[in-house]
């Protein structure tokens, strides 16, 4: 999108940075740093998701399930490529942009390694959805070009519906499984929120974006409301799985 075809505020409801395109918004060095951090975090998250889904495919009980996970892993890698290419396009080294987030993501995945196929499905559904909710909240305050890219790479790869179908079928067949998976999902929720908060706290540009220094309209109270909305969405997804939040 160019400056000439950027929607005006009246037609979109966007103000400040969110009403600009990248060429205008990136003139602010602090905003640019925040976007580089955001794209770096997203890119490594997609790469890690690709690796995790490829690993989870090994636990799949049938060839059809294995093929389905392989297809989803491929979609995650395509998302990673789009983010990597965008970083290069704006003059940033993708690996350097991703590097600050490697420890947080790898730590999360190490602490939440699934013990079986069903735990892997719940982790992908719950963990990925929480991350997507967080990034969608942030996207509302981004420039038009970056917002479009972020929303595009958050498109559902199909894992949500697949996980719901398989988990509900497993619970129907063996109701006791539900209690174990509910505890597992609660643990994932706590770990995912803690990870998100740590990442934001460790990166000055990102934290400034969220509390209002860069992204218009956010304040500390709004950050609290944002995490409340993420928690509410998690509760609805748990119900879709047939699990208690």
UniProtKB/TrEMBL annotation:
<dbReference type="InterPro" id="IPR059125">
    <property type="entry name" value="Ferritin_actino"/>
</dbReference>
<dbReference type="InterPro" id="IPR012347">
    <property type="entry name" value="Ferritin-like"/>
</dbReference>
<protein>
    <submittedName>
        <fullName>Ferritin-like fold-containing protein</fullName>
    </submittedName>
</protein>
<dbReference type="Pfam" id="PF13794">
    <property type="entry name" value="MiaE_2"/>
</dbReference>
<dbReference type="InterPro" id="IPR009078">
    <property type="entry name" value="Ferritin-like_SF"/>
</dbReference>
<feature type="domain" description="Ferritin-like">
    <location>
        <begin position="29"/>
        <end position="213"/>
    </location>
</feature>
